[in-house]
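Late entry, evening session. Most of the bench is empty. Finally got around to the prediction I had been postponing all week. Sequence below, unchanged from the version circulated by S.P.
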Amino acid sequence: MDGDTLYSIGELARRTGLTVKTIRFYSDRGIVAPTDRSPAGYRRYGIDAVARLDLVRTLRELGLDLPTIRKVVDRELALPEVAAAHAEALAVQIRVLRLRRAVLTAVAERGSTPEEMELMHRLAQLSEDERRRLIGDFLDAVFGGLDTASAFAGVMRSMTPELPDNPEREQVQAWVELAEMSLDPSFRAVMRRMVEDQAAEQARSGMTGPRRDITAAVRDQAGPALAAGIDPASPQADPIVAAFTAHCAHLLGHPDDAELRRRLVTRLESVNDPRRERYLRLLAVVNGWPAPESLAPVFDWSVRALRVRTRR
């Protein structure tokens, strides 16, 4: 076929794979105009109509609207600019769809009520600024107003979730659950008590940072004992318990006696609240960090060891 050949709308449909109705629709809107008409008034198209229709079909499959397509095929708009703008719009749509999928999956898995679903949906849709304000309010409730608050600046940063621009479904689900936890007054109260206890320990010991506290001392001493399979009620555990109670007595400025051990049990049970560990695990998912090691077995071992020796 040469460039002077004209084609009927039916022939054009066979060449392009489009229906006659579709081509007539595009033709009526000036996207693919006929080159001429037959004596009977039927439309006739040149070979360039095939290329235009192929381009139109591709752009339509990519989701562009007809007014934009017409400007592209008429070269009123540069295709790269249109493609870039459309790709950006699609990125937004994809993100919204990911958020919706994550919420619906969470609702299905958790058996949520309509009220819970509404809250999850709202939390998933928060902007970056709104997310920062929500977490900022939580962290302020936990750390704010303490004399040693500046010493916890690093801890506060390490507890801040940063949802990426294009999060995976698991990250969205983790963010929603984490945000729900941060709004829970009872969880805030538990975390506040932990921080107040730690701040008090630092004030007594003259420490300037939150790294070496009672829980760290217990973890460092009891962790190896647990790994070695030492029974917390056995005599083999005596020197281990004695080591961390002596250290804690120094931190607290309190004699190493039964009263100290009772205080340590209360402290460790507070730190061992499963919600704290859950928050840290969710935080790791949101931020794309490795999953944190669970300290619950160490704290459980320590509490049992202390209780046994408190009753002696």
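Two things to note before I forget:
Residues 239 and 245 are 10 Å apart (CA to CA).
The beta strands are 36-37, 43-44.
Will write this up properly tomorrow.
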